[in-house]
Amino acid sequence: MKVKILLFAGIFLAVLLIAANLPAKSTVFTLIYDMFNQISIKPQEKGSMNTFVVGAVSVDGHEIEDPEDRFTRIVDDIISDTATINPAKPDAVSLADGKRKFDTFCAVCHGSTREINETGFAKTKVNELGMIAPAVITLTPFFNDGYIYQKAKYGGSVMPAMGYAVSAEERWNIVNHIRELEKQK
Ligand code: HEC
Hints:
Layout: H1 2-20, H2 27-33, H3 67-82, H4 92-105, H5 107-110, H6 125-128, H7 145-154, H8 168-181
Heme C is lined by residues 105-106, 108-110, 131-134, 136, 139-140, 148, 151-152, 156-160, 162, 166, 174.
Protein backbone atom coordinates (compact mmCIF):
# COMPACT_ATOMS: atom_id res chain seq x y z
CA MET A 1 0.00 0.00 0.00
CA LYS A 2 2.74 2.45 1.08
CA VAL A 3 4.71 1.71 -2.07
CA LYS A 4 1.65 2.39 -4.21
CA ILE A 5 1.07 5.76 -2.55
CA LEU A 6 4.72 6.68 -2.95
CA LEU A 7 4.66 5.62 -6.60
CA PHE A 8 1.50 7.60 -7.23
CA ALA A 9 2.93 10.69 -5.52
CA GLY A 10 6.12 10.30 -7.52
CA ILE A 11 4.27 10.17 -10.83
CA PHE A 12 2.10 13.11 -9.83
CA LEU A 13 5.17 15.19 -8.99
CA ALA A 14 6.87 14.24 -12.24
CA VAL A 15 3.78 15.29 -14.22
CA LEU A 16 3.69 18.60 -12.32
CA LEU A 17 7.33 19.29 -13.03
CA ILE A 18 7.02 18.49 -16.71
CA ALA A 19 3.87 20.56 -17.08
CA ALA A 20 5.45 23.52 -15.29
CA ASN A 21 8.30 23.53 -17.77
CA LEU A 22 6.15 23.33 -20.87
CA PRO A 23 6.35 26.41 -23.08
CA ALA A 24 4.12 29.36 -22.19
CA LYS A 25 1.18 27.82 -24.04
CA SER A 26 0.44 25.56 -21.05
CA THR A 27 -2.89 26.94 -19.86
CA VAL A 28 -2.74 25.75 -16.29
CA PHE A 29 0.75 26.75 -15.34
CA THR A 30 0.98 30.10 -17.12
CA LEU A 31 -1.66 31.17 -14.63
CA ILE A 32 0.81 30.67 -11.85
CA TYR A 33 3.81 32.62 -13.04
CA ASP A 34 2.67 34.58 -16.04
CA MET A 35 -0.80 35.80 -15.29
CA PHE A 36 -0.19 39.52 -15.66
CA ASN A 37 1.88 39.32 -18.81
CA GLN A 38 -0.55 37.39 -20.92
CA ILE A 39 -2.12 39.01 -23.95
CA SER A 40 -4.63 41.46 -22.52
CA ILE A 41 -5.44 45.14 -22.48
CA LYS A 42 -4.00 46.85 -19.41
CA PRO A 43 -5.98 49.67 -17.81
CA GLN A 44 -3.35 52.26 -18.60
CA GLU A 45 -2.99 51.29 -22.23
CA LYS A 46 -4.37 53.31 -25.09
CA GLY A 47 -7.80 52.23 -26.20
CA SER A 48 -8.49 50.42 -22.94
CA MET A 49 -10.59 51.43 -19.93
CA ASN A 50 -8.95 54.85 -19.87
CA THR A 51 -11.57 56.37 -22.10
CA PHE A 52 -15.01 56.17 -20.59
CA VAL A 53 -18.04 57.67 -22.23
CA VAL A 54 -18.74 61.11 -20.76
CA GLY A 55 -21.76 60.83 -18.45
CA ALA A 56 -21.19 57.16 -17.64
CA VAL A 57 -21.08 56.34 -13.92
CA SER A 58 -17.85 54.83 -12.68
CA VAL A 59 -17.58 52.22 -9.92
CA ASP A 60 -16.93 54.89 -7.28
CA GLY A 61 -20.23 56.52 -8.18
CA HIS A 62 -18.84 59.55 -9.99
CA GLU A 63 -20.10 60.61 -13.35
CA ILE A 64 -17.37 60.58 -15.96
CA GLU A 65 -16.54 64.17 -16.84
CA ASP A 66 -15.20 65.77 -19.93
CA PRO A 67 -11.47 66.35 -19.13
CA GLU A 68 -12.00 70.06 -19.82
CA ASP A 69 -14.90 70.22 -17.32
CA ARG A 70 -12.85 68.29 -14.80
CA PHE A 71 -10.07 70.84 -14.90
CA THR A 72 -12.46 73.75 -14.36
CA ARG A 73 -14.25 71.86 -11.59
CA ILE A 74 -10.99 71.21 -9.74
CA VAL A 75 -9.91 74.84 -10.06
CA ASP A 76 -13.33 75.98 -8.74
CA ASP A 77 -13.08 73.43 -5.95
CA ILE A 78 -9.60 74.61 -4.93
CA ILE A 79 -10.79 78.22 -4.84
CA SER A 80 -13.81 77.41 -2.70
CA ASP A 81 -11.86 75.04 -0.39
CA THR A 82 -9.27 77.76 0.17
CA ALA A 83 -12.02 80.16 1.25
CA THR A 84 -13.59 77.64 3.66
CA ILE A 85 -13.34 78.25 7.40
CA ASN A 86 -11.93 75.22 9.26
CA PRO A 87 -14.98 73.44 10.72
CA ALA A 88 -12.90 71.13 12.98
CA LYS A 89 -12.27 72.30 16.54
CA PRO A 90 -8.66 71.61 17.54
CA ASP A 91 -9.70 69.40 20.45
CA ALA A 92 -7.81 66.32 21.67
CA VAL A 93 -9.61 63.97 19.28
CA SER A 94 -8.97 66.15 16.23
CA LEU A 95 -5.32 66.69 17.15
CA ALA A 96 -4.69 62.99 17.80
CA ASP A 97 -6.21 62.05 14.45
CA GLY A 98 -4.39 64.90 12.70
CA LYS A 99 -1.06 63.80 14.13
CA ARG A 100 -1.65 60.20 13.12
CA LYS A 101 -2.64 61.13 9.58
CA PHE A 102 0.14 63.71 9.19
CA ASP A 103 2.75 61.23 10.42
CA THR A 104 1.38 58.62 8.03
CA PHE A 105 0.81 60.65 4.86
CA CYS A 106 2.76 63.90 5.03
CA ALA A 107 5.83 63.53 7.27
CA VAL A 108 7.51 61.06 4.93
CA CYS A 109 8.23 63.97 2.58
CA HIS A 110 7.83 67.08 4.74
CA GLY A 111 9.16 65.91 8.11
CA SER A 112 7.52 67.26 11.28
CA THR A 113 10.17 69.79 12.25
CA ARG A 114 11.87 72.80 10.69
CA GLU A 115 15.01 70.77 10.01
CA ILE A 116 16.34 71.06 6.46
CA ASN A 117 19.09 69.31 4.50
CA GLU A 118 21.93 70.92 2.48
CA THR A 119 19.62 71.61 -0.45
CA GLY A 120 17.16 73.52 1.72
CA PHE A 121 14.39 70.90 1.68
CA ALA A 122 13.02 69.00 4.67
CA LYS A 123 15.45 66.58 6.26
CA THR A 124 13.75 63.38 5.11
CA LYS A 125 14.90 60.18 3.38
CA VAL A 126 12.88 60.84 0.23
CA ASN A 127 14.43 64.29 -0.15
CA GLU A 128 17.86 62.69 0.02
CA LEU A 129 16.70 60.54 -2.88
CA GLY A 130 15.68 63.52 -5.01
CA MET A 131 12.25 64.62 -3.75
CA ILE A 132 11.94 68.37 -3.20
CA ALA A 133 9.49 68.69 -0.33
CA PRO A 134 9.90 71.78 1.85
CA ALA A 135 9.94 71.59 5.67
CA VAL A 136 6.28 72.44 5.48
CA ILE A 137 5.83 74.14 8.84
CA THR A 138 8.21 76.90 7.75
CA LEU A 139 5.65 77.81 5.06
CA THR A 140 2.28 77.07 6.62
CA PRO A 141 2.23 80.14 8.93
CA PHE A 142 1.76 82.15 5.71
CA PHE A 143 -1.22 80.05 4.55
CA ASN A 144 -4.79 79.99 5.77
CA ASP A 145 -6.39 76.71 6.89
CA GLY A 146 -8.35 76.26 3.66
CA TYR A 147 -5.23 76.54 1.55
CA ILE A 148 -3.46 73.77 3.49
CA TYR A 149 -6.67 71.73 3.37
CA GLN A 150 -6.92 71.85 -0.43
CA LYS A 151 -3.19 71.18 -0.71
CA ALA A 152 -3.65 67.95 1.24
CA LYS A 153 -6.45 67.07 -1.19
CA TYR A 154 -5.07 68.03 -4.60
CA GLY A 155 -1.31 68.27 -4.02
CA GLY A 156 0.73 70.64 -6.17
CA SER A 157 2.94 70.71 -9.24
CA VAL A 158 5.18 68.05 -7.68
CA MET A 159 3.31 66.97 -4.57
CA PRO A 160 0.91 64.09 -5.29
CA ALA A 161 -2.80 64.58 -4.58
CA MET A 162 -3.45 62.93 -1.21
CA GLY A 163 -7.23 63.25 -1.26
CA TYR A 164 -7.56 59.54 -1.95
CA ALA A 165 -5.83 58.77 1.34
CA VAL A 166 -7.33 61.29 3.75
CA SER A 167 -10.98 62.25 4.07
CA ALA A 168 -12.26 65.82 4.40
CA GLU A 169 -12.50 65.50 8.19
CA GLU A 170 -8.99 64.06 8.38
CA ARG A 171 -7.60 66.89 6.27
CA TRP A 172 -9.00 69.48 8.69
CA ASN A 173 -7.52 67.47 11.55
CA ILE A 174 -4.17 67.53 9.74
CA VAL A 175 -4.45 71.32 9.47
CA ASN A 176 -5.06 71.53 13.23
CA HIS A 177 -2.02 69.33 13.88
CA ILE A 178 0.13 71.48 11.57
CA ARG A 179 -0.90 74.56 13.60
CA GLU A 180 0.38 72.73 16.70
CA LEU A 181 3.65 71.81 14.96
CA GLU A 182 4.18 75.45 14.01
CA LYS A 183 4.52 76.28 17.73
CA GLN A 184 7.82 74.40 18.02
CA LYS A 185 11.05 76.39 17.70
C1 HEC B 1 5.58 62.57 -2.04
C2 HEC B 1 5.97 63.65 -1.19
C3 HEC B 1 4.90 64.49 -0.55
C4 HEC B 1 3.90 64.08 0.30
C5 HEC B 1 3.57 62.67 0.74
C6 HEC B 1 3.22 65.28 0.71
N1 HEC B 1 3.78 66.38 0.12
FE1 HEC B 1 3.24 68.31 0.42
N2 HEC B 1 4.62 68.91 -0.95
C7 HEC B 1 5.50 68.09 -1.61
C8 HEC B 1 6.31 68.90 -2.51
C9 HEC B 1 7.41 68.37 -3.44
C10 HEC B 1 5.89 70.24 -2.36
C11 HEC B 1 6.42 71.50 -3.08
C12 HEC B 1 6.03 71.53 -4.53
C13 HEC B 1 4.55 71.48 -4.76
O1 HEC B 1 3.80 72.32 -4.21
O2 HEC B 1 4.12 70.56 -5.46
C14 HEC B 1 4.83 70.21 -1.36
C15 HEC B 1 4.18 71.34 -0.88
C16 HEC B 1 3.29 71.35 0.17
C17 HEC B 1 2.74 72.56 0.76
C18 HEC B 1 3.14 73.98 0.40
C19 HEC B 1 2.33 74.44 -0.75
C20 HEC B 1 2.79 75.76 -1.33
O3 HEC B 1 1.95 76.35 -2.03
O4 HEC B 1 3.93 76.20 -1.14
C21 HEC B 1 1.86 72.16 1.72
C22 HEC B 1 1.02 73.07 2.62
C23 HEC B 1 1.86 70.72 1.74
N3 HEC B 1 2.75 70.27 0.79
C24 HEC B 1 1.11 69.95 2.60
C25 HEC B 1 1.12 68.55 2.59
C26 HEC B 1 0.25 67.76 3.44
C27 HEC B 1 -0.74 68.30 4.44
C28 HEC B 1 0.54 66.45 3.15
C29 HEC B 1 -0.11 65.21 3.71
C30 HEC B 1 -1.50 65.06 3.48
C31 HEC B 1 1.59 66.43 2.14
N4 HEC B 1 1.90 67.73 1.83
C32 HEC B 1 2.16 65.29 1.61
C33 HEC B 1 5.63 66.73 -1.45
C34 HEC B 1 4.81 65.93 -0.67
